[in-house]
């Protein structure tokens, strides 16, 4: 690779950020296919390629949003229903410790601050949470599933595929938001998708063209300097 090519790759990686307001401009099907063709070059343990991707648009997208938003609103009214909507794998720890909880809080309050949501404004927070299930208005949802027989390693493989999708999308002028929020509603999601019983939902990506005028998309998250997470061992 020459230095220009290095810069293009680096730019695609560093300019990606989670977009939470999309235009309703449709995404060309061939472009989605191109992104997936590139992204599936992701490595996977012994080349098992454990990913399966459902590309959801149009009427199915509307049905998905309607059903999951209804469930989320019901859950908000009756928190005791949360038993029904348990994730099949724990994405987050049960007990948080520093520094992760601090970063999580900084992230949440940073986002809410931009949206002028203050502490205690539960209705506004719930409305913002609901935006997840409206796909932040993105015209395309990518639901990634895995066969239940596969282990934790398959989720690592799918994560690599997910990142590739987001970078390949960015290179084509598209933006994304990875979403674990949908995992709670896996029974509904898998039903709408018509997925077989042996599949689990791993992650969702909202895909589309970013709304350049929405303040939420100005949210750029910090990163620790490499000294804080790197140990050179000789
Ligand atoms: C696996 C995964 C799941 C995520 N789930 C959500 C989600 O459900 N809703 C959301 O708004 N952001 C979600 N995010 C986005 C993170 O909040 C975001 O990646 C993080 O704050 C860093 O910001 P950046 O993506 O803009 O660099 C998720 C990210 C990852 C990697």
Automatic annotation (TrEMBL):
Leader peptide range in chain numbering: none
Residue intervals of the Nitroreductase domain: 13-209
Keywords: Flavoprotein, FMN, Oxidoreductase
Name the record gives this protein: Nitroreductase domain-containing protein
Gene Ontology molecular function: oxidoreductase activity
Family: Belongs to the nitroreductase family.
Cofactor: FMN
Pfam families, alphabetized: Nitroreductase
Organism of provenance: Acinetobacter beijerinckii CIP 110307
């Amino acid at each position: 690779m020459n230095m220009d090519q290095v810069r293009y790759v680096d730019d695609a990686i560093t300019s990606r950020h989670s977009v939470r307001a999309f235009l309703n401009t449709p995404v060309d099907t061939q472009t989605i296919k191109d992104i997936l063709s590139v992204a599936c070059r992701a490595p996977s343990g012994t080349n098992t390629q454990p990913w399966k991707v459902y590309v959801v648009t149009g009427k199915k997208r509307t049905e998905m949003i309607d059903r999951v938003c209804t469930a989320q609103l019901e859950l908000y009214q009756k928190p005791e229903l949360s038993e029904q909507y348990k994730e099949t794998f724990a994405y987050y720890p049960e007990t948080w410790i520093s520094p992760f909880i601090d970063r999580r809080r900084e992230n949440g309050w940073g986002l809410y601050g931009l949206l002028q949501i203050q502490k205690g404004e539960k209705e506004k927070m719930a409305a913002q949470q609901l935006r997840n299930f409206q796909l932040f208005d993105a015209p395309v949802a990518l639901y990634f599933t895995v066969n239940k027989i596969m282990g934790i390693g398959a989720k690592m493989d799918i994560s690599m595929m997910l990142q590739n999708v987001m970078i390949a999308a960015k290179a084509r002028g598209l933006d994304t938001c990875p979403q674990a929020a949908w995992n709670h509603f896996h029974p509904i999601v898998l039903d709408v998708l018509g997925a077989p019983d042996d599949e689990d939902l791993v992650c969702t990506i909202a895909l589309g063209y970013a709304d350049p005028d929405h303040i939420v998309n100005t949210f750029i998250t910090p990163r620790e300097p490499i000294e804080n997470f790197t140990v050179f061992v000789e």
